[in-house]
Amino acid sequence: YRFGLDGGLERTLEEVGEHFGVTRERVRQIQNLALSKMRKMIEHLESVQK
Q1: What is the pTM of this model?
Q2: Cα–Cα distance measured from residue 49 to residue 27, given in angstroms and rounded to the nearest whole number
Q3: Positive or negative CA dihedral for 33, 37, 43, 44?
Q4: Which candidate, 28, 33, 37, places its Cα nearest to that of 2?
Q5: What is the 3-state secondary structure (H, E, C) of 4-19?
């Protein structure tokens, strides 16, 4: 939803927060947590392939 990966438009933290009923700061926190988890998953997959 935030990055338009569903074919929609990219949205600001503020817009996402309004949609889900949370603050833009909370959206930022959740986004950073999700990105961190994805980075760790990629690192793990890369280490398994070696």
Answers
A1: 0.82
A2: 33
A3: positive
A4: 28
A5: CCCCCCCCCHHHHHHH
Q: Report how far residue 9's alpha carbon sits from residue 3's, in angstroms, rounded to the nearest whole number.
A: 7
Distance CA 18, CA 26 (A): 11
Q: pLDDT for 6-38, tens place per residue?
A: 899 999 999 999 999 999 999 999 999 999 999
- Of all helices (H) and strands (E), which one includes residue 40? helix 24-49
Cα separations in angstroms, 33 against 37, 39, 40: 6, 10, 11
Name the maximum alpha-carbon separation found in the chain.
44
